[in-house]
Amino acid sequence: MDIRIGIAHSPREISFESSQSPADIEKAVAEVLSGASGHLSLTDVKGTVYLVPATTLSYVEIGAEEARRVGFVL
C-alpha cells in the first residue's frame, strides 16, 4: 500500500509503502485530526517509523495495493 504525506511549508512529501491496512491508516489520521494524538505515527514495510506532528500535517494519500508487474509494458 502506497502512502504519501504532505507536510505544511515543505515542497517535498513523505512517500513510502506500508503493510498496514487502509482502515488502520485512516483511523490513525482521524485520531490526529481530532486532537487525540499530537503526532501521526506510521510504519513502512521495512520497519521504519515515520512521526509527523499534527500541526504540520497537510494531507495523507492512501493508495491502492497494486501487484508488482514483471516484464515489458507496451
From TrEMBL:
Name of one Pfam family that matches: DUF3107
Domain of life of the organism encoding this protein: Bacteria
InterPro entries in UniProt: DUF3107
Name the UniProt record assigns to this protein: ATP-binding protein
